[in-house]
Amino acid sequence: MKIEQVALQLYTLRDHLKTPADIAASLKKVRAIGYQAVQASGLGPIPEAELLAILDGEGLTLCATHEPSDQILADPQAVVERLEKLHCTYTAYPYPSGIDFADQAQIESLTKRLEAAGKVLHEAGLVLTYHNHAIELVRLGERTILDSIYESTTPAHVQAEIDTYWIQYGGGDPVDWCERLAGRLPLLHMKDYRFMTDNKPDFAEIGSGNLNWKKIIAAAEGSGCQWFIVEQDICPGDPFDSVEKSFRYVSEHLCA
To answer: What's the N-to-C CA distance of the chain in angstroms?
Structure first.
């Protein structure tokens, strides 16, 4: 992994991204920390051209986005048009909103709709990925729902954005999931997992939790990962402090 492949998932800073002025100020801080790329998620309303101008002005690459789950399934062409305006190749289906994972028919419907949406993006030269949480690690018979999602879709149409925290939280192995998605893992959410004295897990800055990052990164690289995206859903204080701490660890201990 090279430092220029390390991005920040802007959802981490969502409370500081409500207006175009907030976005501009926050992206300036992100670039000053050292990040060279970001993933767009959690931003308030801003025209694509204005967002691009801010990113270009700071020398930041937009490596990927999260688009609304319902829109991806119902109107993938609108997603294509937005990504083209942003000059961005990758997006992710962020969360299976409204899907009852106890209902096999709903799971099958979701995978069919993901396949159809991914085909639209693929034909436009773009890539749809699936962003997991822990719920997809529920087992249905011999396999998990996440297994079913990838086995029931075409690799060219539905690729992966593995989230390391949620894989661990759901009882999976982040290294194993990175390895099994060889050739299908362009995006990795680097999110550390620590356990607390109240007997509960918590989000942590990279290097402050329990995940084996050297093995995870090696597995992701072996599967062709292009973007290694730092994220922290909840920070203990100022999120800019957390994303800087993560960046320092990544740059000093994980980058070639």
So the answer is: 6
CA-based radius of gyration for the chain? 17
pLDDT tens sequence across 126-139: 999 999 999 999 99
Q: How far apart are CA 36 and CA 23, in angstroms?
A: 16
CB-based contact 129:121 (threshold 8 Å): no
Give residues with Cβ within 8 angstroms of 139, minimum separation 6: 145
Place of tokens 């599967």: 223
At 174 the three-state DSSP class reads helix
User: In the block, which residue shows the tokens 């607390």?
Assistant: 196
3-state secondary structure at position 145: helix
Its pTM stands at: 0.97
**Chain-centre distance of CA 41, in angstroms?**
9
Reported residue count of the chain is 256
* Chain CA centroid to CA 123, Å: 22
Domain architecture of the chain: domains with CATH:
3-254 (3.20.20.150)
The two structure tokens encoding residue 53: 């101008």
Residues near 105 by Cβ (< 8 Å), separated by ≥ 6? none
